[in-house]
Amino acid sequence: MNENEIGQIIVDCAVKLHQALGPGLLESVYEKLLARSLERRGLSVKRQVPVTFEFEGEVFEEGFRADMIVNEKVMVELKSVESSHPAHKKQLLTYLKLTGLKLGYLLNFGAALMRDGITRSINGQI
Question: What is the Cα–Cα distance from 3 to 11, expressed in whole angstroms?
Answer without folding.
Answer: 12
